[in-house]
Amino acid sequence: MNKKxxxxxxxxxxxxxxxxxxxxxxxxxQKEQQAEQSQKKSLxxxxxxxxxxxxxxxxxxxxxxxxxxxxxxxxxxxxxxxTQYLSKILAALKKExxxxxxxxxxxxxxxxxxxxxxxxxxDGNSVGAHSMTHDSKKLYKQxxxxxxxxxxxxxxxxxxxxxxxxxxxxxGSTYLNKEQVQKAKADKFRxxxxxxxxxxxxxxxxxxxxVDFVNRELDGFHKxxxxxxxxxxxxxxxxxxALVKAIRAKGFQLEPYFExxxxxxxxxxDPDL
Length: 273
Hints:
By secondary structure, the protein is an alpha/beta fold. It has helices spanning 2-62, 86-95, 111-122, 136-141, 145-160, 178-186, 207-218, 234-249, and strands at residues 72-81, 101-104, 126-129, 166-167, 190-191, 196-197, 227-231, 252-254. The longest helix has 61 residues, at 2-62. It is elongated, with a radius of gyration of 32 Å. Mean pLDDT is 86; it is low at 54-69.
């Protein structure tokens, strides 16, 4: 009899221990679940906060402070591409909510850069022809300016799926003769020169030098839009964040230049070119 009692007591003790252990296990599991849920909520709240801050930053970037109550327009133009830096420059511009105007050299348009040219247009940038060779002798002395512009324009049109009528003369339209000017107008090309040369070649390896120079030049622009010339290089890529900020700080809205723009700027001072 005592043996049976002892066995029953042992069984009871085991059951009690199991009950206590199970309760502790489920309690611990519940705590871990609650901690996991709390962590998820905290991460979600952090993401919402970061998204709100980013949205606020973008809104501020899109609306630079006007000067004297008037919003002025500036055009950032990037020559001599496409190059290996095109896609990164596009990403940098997109990050700053800025758009630019790209002038491409036909002989540089290799297959690996065609997607970047399409992306430039999709992002709202404008693109134009900058000749096939960028060779002043061929363009001006041998009279190949118009044929090369037509060829480059046709090449770009085939890539982006629309007619490209915007052109920039290598070294500027100063070198065009009267016949070339008239033919450019007959072809309905819009030629854009520049009024701020960043002299980026002088600041090679020093992107802040580009920014500082352009920033000083902008002080002289009150009644006319600045058209800023830079080139598709690593220095331009590195300069973009500070350059965009400097331009906007002077009260300018950055816009791409399209061929139907009412604002004409060429060294020939021809309102129809």
